[in-house]
Amino acid sequence: MRLTPLIAPAPAQADEVLQLAAALDQVRVADESRAGYTRDKFKHWNSGLDLGDGCNTRAEVLLAEAVEAPTVAAGCKLSGGEWTSYCTSA
Questions:
Q1: What are phi and psi for residue 77, nearest 5 degrees?
Q2: Rounded CA separation 21/31 (Å)
Q3: Exposure winner among 10, 16, 65, 77, fewest CB in 10 A?
Q4: Percent of the chain as helix, strand, coil, to the nearest 5
Q5: Alpha-carbon separation of residue 62 from 31, 32, 86 (angstroms)
Q6: Which is nearest to 87 in space by CA: 10, 15, 1?
Q7: What tens digit of pLDDT does each residue of 1-47 get?
Q8: Coil, helix or strand for 77?
Q9: Cβ partners under 8 Å of residue 5, min gap 6
Q10: Do the beta carbons of residue 60 and residue 49 sit within 8 Å?
């Protein structure tokens, strides 16, 4: 799967309320560019909430947002689990 960055459209009028699916339809998609990105600039994100549990920020988010919790093995290795996609409602 290829991730594509999203570019936000012009803001909707203050009195316009959109459902999530309709708002996503208005988002323009651009080609991915990683110019200037270096993972090393984000080391502080990789420690997670509890420095002793071995979970990085990604694992913490997966655990927090799981509909069905994954199995957590030593070193915070995750397997299984289930999540709902905000984009597809599945």
A1: -80, 120
A2: 21
A3: 10
A4: 30, 15, 55
A5: 26, 24, 14
A6: 1
A7: 555 556 666 665 667 788 888 888 888 888 888 888 887 777 666 67
A8: strand
A9: 30, 32, 33
A10: yes
